Amino acid sequence: MNMTPVAAAMGDAPQSAPPRSTRVDIGTLLDQGPFTGMQRLVVLLAALSIVMDGFDGQLIGFAIPLMIKEWGITREAFAPAVAAGLIGMGIGSACAGLFADRFGRRMAIIASVFVFGTATCAIGLAPNALVVAVLRFIAGLGIGGALPSATTMTAEFTPMRRRTLAVTATIVCVPLGGMLAGLFASLVLPLYGWRSLFFVGGSLPLVLGLTLLAALPESPRFLARRPQRWNELGTLLGRMGRPMATGVVYTDALEQRSEKQGGFRALFTLGYGRDTLATWVAFFMCLTAVYSAFSWLPTLLLSEGLELSVAGSGLTAYNLGGVIGALACAVAMTRWGSFWPLLTCCAGGAASAFLLQVVDIHQDTGLLIFGFGVHGLFVNAVQSTLFALCAFIYPTSVRATGTASALAFGRLGAVFSVFAGALVITRGGAQGYLMLLGSVMVLALLALLLVRRHIPRRLPGQP
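The structure corresponding to this sequence follows.
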């Protein structure tokens, strides 16, 4: 029986390596092949790097109240230190793709983890807010670079049929890491202070970085573009249960064709302009809400007279809700499309923030914490699944550019949240802060109403 080279490479042939003249399309091999234990390990390692990303990224939010108190400065005076980290994240996100394309996804992830781990450790030695700003900027470069690099690695090791859920699960590790940071901070801060929080919190990524150096392989699709590394690719495919002969010629036909097309200008041509601007606004508003919580929620609750442990619990609940909401929304979108799940979550995010305004912070602390968990559920459900919406809106030739540009524009919302949050808390207290959270989700809802290319509802009988 005659078999195509790809079919032989995918394991439908007898258990022998293909002949030296075989040409193998690495894209078909990975997209349609099995999801082996080796591939699952890579996805797990990529996800762990994002857990540490979210962990280190949110430590500052728990430490700000104590740092302000120790140095005798105002919230507004500390805002530039928080903003510096977010600016670093924006630059790191923008540069991560260039670094990963030149030096590999593996080194992009490992370098990011070591950068933010080392800088976070160093914050424990900071004598003032200016030094914190510099170190947070450096940490932000790594924190911002880890997410796109890790999600790319996850996508390139996962078969097409499982890719959306795998990438969403990787993104969800940001609030998961933040939740763990909250639990960690509640144990460390009362006993050892904020400096120990950064010493230990920065050491954990360094340990993970060493593990990644030993265990994380390079992306097969990256290796397929470099003939001088095809022997390395063959070894990797053997570990993935797909043995290859040393003379195999590797191609990636679909991706290599698309790489010759597209560009930033394509985001505003062929009818994509409206969807591009709408998703940019949605990212901006969602990240304004998310980072208003990450940066200022513990500070707000502490300024209202609550205990430090309670203040930290608010952000922990927010992140826990975010993990649940993101996964639930991803499942809902696979069945009902993106329009109604996203709009429902935007409305839920706005309503939960507005309803929290009637809660007595001092008498109903438990209800307050629960309310922030619900708000985090809705906001993170929108934010995490916006990546899937971008992946659907744009064709392969501009998909990465479209998603990266939306995230980069959204980072401006994160920077805006730092100064807006400090100003609103100082002048409007809890009521003004909750009004900000609710208002930006209303604007996100309006932006998503304008999107033309929502993910369609799955029809009965579709797989």
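The domain at 22-260 is CATH 1.20.1250.20 (Growth Hormone; Chain: A;).
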